[in-house]
Write a structure and sequence with these properties.
By secondary structure, the chain is mostly helical. The chain has one domain. The protein is 69% helix and 0% strand. The radius of gyration is 16 Å and the shape is globular.
Amino acid sequence: MTGLLRGALACAGVFVIIGLLAFGSFNLGHMLLLGSFGSSAVMVFTFPKLPFSQPRSVVGGHVVCTAVGLAALALLGPSWWALALAASLSLALMMLTGTVHPPAGSNPLIVFLAAPKWSFLLFPTLSGALILVAVALVYHRACREPYPCSSLQDRITSSG
C-alpha cells in the first residue's frame, strides 16, 4: 500500500471515529468526546502497531488518567500542585498497569479544567474509548491490517 493511500485511509478512519463520537454526543444526550480522543484517533489509525495504540493502552490509559484526575480534584481541590500531582501519578499508574497511552496524559488537565462529576469516568471516558477501539478493530480488519498487534512479530511482519 502506498504512503499516500495509507495516509488517506488513516484520515478516513479519524473522520469516522470523531464523526461518530460527535454525532453521538450531539444527538444521544451523552457526551462521548474528550479532547484527548483526537490524538488517540491519530495514533490508532496512523500507528496501529505501536504498543501505545493497542486497545489495552487506549482504554486503560484513558480510564486510569481520568480516574486519577477526578480523585485528585475531589481530594485535593483545584490547585496547580494537585493538577501536577495528578498528571504525574497518572503516568506512574499507566506504567504500573502497562496501559501507557500518551494522549490520555491530558485527561487530568481536562478534568481540572471542566470539574466534572464522577460520571465523567463512564461518559465520555470509558464509553468513548471503547467506541474508538471498536471502530479501529473494524477499520483495520477492513484494511487487512493486524489490530490489535499482540506481539512484536505481528508488528514486524505487518510493517510492509
